[in-house]
Predict the 3D structure of the following.
Amino acid sequence: MSSAVVVLPGDGIGPEVTAQATRVLEAVAEKLGFSLEIREALLGGAAFDAVGQPLPEETLALCRDADAIFLGAVGGPQWDDIAVELRPEQGLLGLRQALGLFANLRPVKTHPELVAASPLRPERLAGVDIIIVRELTGGIYFGKRGRTETTAFDTCEYSVAEIERICRVAGRLAQERRQKVTSVDKANVLDTSRLWRETATRVFTTEFPEVQLEHLYIDAATMHLLSRPADFDVMVMDNMFGDILTDEASMLAGSLGVLPSASLSASGPGLFEPIHGSAPDIAGRDVANPCGAILSIAMLLRHSLALPEAADAVELAVRSALKAGVRTADLAATGGDQPVGTAGFGEAVLRHLSI
């Protein structure tokens, strides 16, 4: 077996967490005896500084030819004043669109060792195991937009086909889990949401009749996600609602630093990244939590390289490190007797990695 993975360290803490994630991926390849080619490329602010574009053509070409892509993080205040189309985030949006990465999967699972990091009471966190499926290439982030001195507009638009394909992703995931999907919309106000609800109802009724479908308005969903999080299994929603709800859901796990994500297309390489931002205030200090980045490698192994046993092993290694008391600074409130930095956490995971 031979696999090519493009690594995009990006900005801020991106290079630091990427270094630990890459170490884990290389260790898996060595233990399993497969050939791994890692190609590093520029994206985001680092790319703008180097070549004047947040998504260089060379980077895009490498990504198209890869088996999988890993991203650290993009963005930072030093790029706040440049033109919108050149901002670091546009590099990531452009990559998602160019590769057709329409399905963003964000698992949220509570670790018993980390419940003290969440603002919720421990009894509400018992049994939380959710996958949020976010439509990633449509909606308001990609619609027509404009601005004058006194007005501005952003257009949200969805097609039936876009809604169908993201609902099918959610349906297939639910079949492998607890067979329940919650579709989130604002159908009492928005036409796009009314189309979303009608299409979701038809898809699940005709194609996934064994899956229980629940509809929630986005405002209700934000409340129920905190009041009854263990009731949710798979949640599916549009681009903007998914952006908001996944950050809220991170509080169930206690820290943005522990959560991974995968962005998948109908065919072609997937993009895997921790859900946290570039955190420029802590960049270069060896304090960033690489847990989400390492767990994103597990998703890469599962979804792009078809190595589910290796993915399980990486996830187990992370859990074992946490059970052993290994903690980065953002998790200090959860106890543990082994405070470590970014590199130290990566080393702990490697010590517990068994394949």
In short: The mean pLDDT is 96. Residues 14-32 form the longest helix (19 residues). The radius of gyration is 20 Å.
